[in-house]
Amino acid sequence: MATKSEERKLVRRTTKPSLEDKEKAKKQREVEKDRREFYEKPIHFSSESLFSTGSGYNNYRGVLNLCIVLLVLTTSRVALENLIKYGILIDPVSWLTIFVADPYNWPCVILIACSNVFILASFQIEIWLLKGWVSETPGRAMHVVNCAAILVFPATVVLSVEPGPAGAAYALFVYTCVFLKNVSYIATNHWLRYQYKSSGQRKGVRRTHKSVGDGDADGAAQNLANGKPETQLVAYPDNMNLKDLYSFMLFPTLCYELNFPRTPRIRKRFLLKRLAESFMLLQLMLGLIQQWIAPLLNNAIKPFVDMDLPMMVERIMKLAIPNHFIWLIFFYWFFHSNLNVLAELTQFADRTFYRDWWNSESVQYFWSNWNIPVYRWCKRHLYQPLQRRGYSKLFGQVCVFATSAFFHEYLVSVPLRMFRWWSFTGMLMQVPFAVFVSKFLAGPYGNMAVWLSLIVGQPFAILMYLHDYYVINHLSQAQNITSTPGL
Questions:
Q1: DSSP assignment, residue 205?
Q2: Spatial separation of the C-alpha atoms in residues 424 and 404, rounded to whole Å
Q3: What's the pTM value of the predicted model, to 2 decimals?
């Protein structure tokens, strides 16, 4: 028989929990713990809704994607409606036959060639001033007359010969660029000539620039940082030659300098890409004008002639989207494709033709970033000289907008041969609008206001010019015919 000690060992061995019992007990404790945490753990905290400004949430990419999808669907529906209603109106050949069918478009080509007369006149006056054959006061007067003739001569020819509006507008655009470049050339050489003569006719200080290397902007910046200076630097008066002047006339800039940044070679692949973009986008714009804009303008004449206010507003809203779409294409076509083509052919390295104007939260930011060549000219030759003479910033801004308004009206009214001042008034209204936006709207609301002015303001001006053009050239003629005796 077993002893008492052996019996106790046997009882402990039989009553000892097995491994499975331990696992079950562990799982049961975990389940009880989870239940306790499930009901006791708080799920509500102090927080703001995502759309509230205090939430700090700013990731609305999904909403942006939704807006893009809705925009594509809406535009597709309008395009389909246009095709069903009008059919296919696109005719690429019609744009080419304009110059053949209308002989009065060719004087615009001759008019552009005549701009060399005024360029050479400015160069000759500068030579006379350098050699001392003409003093500063008479030389300044001759420059003023020459610059005034640059604007008056083409306008007189257009108003007299009456070529097509498109060719006339392009010719006046070329003369406007010649005028702005000429003013910069005269002002810069005047300062260089003063420094040259005041230093005892010794060569002035050279302004150095560095070549931009091949590749993209990052590679260009790296090459600039490494430093590859241009070997031939020009100092006044070595720049007084026709090669230097006509190089400046071909560069995609309006501000003259002694030494411009240059690229070491022409990138053929980059040039071909920009040329292809330019050709395709031009055809796209012309096709959209034929298919989309022309029917809308034809349908908008009657409400504006009858002064039907509700229908006028409806036509403006209907024209706003396609007009703005074409304006965006034009911006990319001109400022990116065309100016890069010209810069690549001339090996001009400064490719800052625009900045992020689409993020503009103020009117001032938009106008100082969407057209950099014009902004630099206005700042260098108009705004800063007024500031140095003690004028206020507001007066300088008004003068800049007034100058821009004059050239906008010059490029529209003269080709159309009518003066209604819609562009001039619209540009001047940018000054109080800029003050209003900067004072009462900020951040995204300011950006919305800038976009709204671009989307609605342009079609309004277009329809007002269309109304006046129709009244002058069609309605008045029809009334004259009906009022003629014997008819």
A1: P
A2: 8
A3: 0.79
- For 294-353, how does the pLDDT look when each residue is reduced to its tens digit (9 = 90+)? 888 787 777 777 777 788 788 888 888 888 888 889 999 999 999 999 999 999 999 999
For residue 249, which of 108, 383, 115 has the smallest C-alpha distance?
Answer: 115
- Alpha-carbon torsion, ordered 343, 146, 117, 103, to 10 deg: 90
Question: Taking Cα atoms as reference points, which of 470, 434, 438 lies closest to residue 453?
Answer: 434
Determine the length of the chain: 487
- Are 115 and 175 a contacting pair, CB within 8 Å? yes
- What is the pLDDT confidence band of residue 200, given thresholds at 50, 70 and 90? low
How far apart (Å, rounded) are the C-alpha atoms in residues 64 and 61? 5
**How far apart, in Å, are the Cα atoms of 467 and each of 302, 425, 437?**
9, 17, 30
Give CA separation, 404 vs 68, 166, 222, 324, 374, in Å.
34, 20, 37, 21, 9
Four-point Cα dihedral 189, 190, 194, 196, nearest 10: 20
What region, left, alpha or beta, does residue 145 occupy, with left being phi > 0 and alpha being psi -120 to 50 degrees?
alpha
**Helix ranges (DSSP H) in 230-267:** 242-250
| Nearest residue to 250 (alpha-carbon basis) of 337, 181, 319, 329 | 181
pLDDT digits (tens, 9 = 90+) for 411-443: 988 988 888 788 888 888 888 888 888 888 878
CA geometry: angle 225, 229, 232, nearest 5 deg:
165
Distance CA 380, CA 403 (A): 14
Which residues, including other chains, have CB under 8 Å from residue 296's CB and lie 6 or more apart?
Answer: 315, 318, 319, 322
Judge contact between 370 and 357, C-beta under 8 A: yes
- Residue 262 DSSP label: B
Q: Give 262's strand partners.
A: 348
Residue 289 in 3-state DSSP? helix
Residue 90 CA to residue 385 CA, distance in Å, equals: 49
Question: CA dist 140 to 134, 234, 235, 471, Å?
Answer: 10, 25, 23, 43
408 is catalytic: yes
Q: Which helix (H) or strand (E) holds 179?
A: helix 165-198
Tell me how far CA of residue 413 lies from CA of 72, 179, 295, 417, 480, in angstroms: 35, 18, 23, 6, 24
Q: Is the pLDDT of residue 223 over 50?
A: no
**Which residue in 143, 408, 467, 474 is the catalytic one?**
408
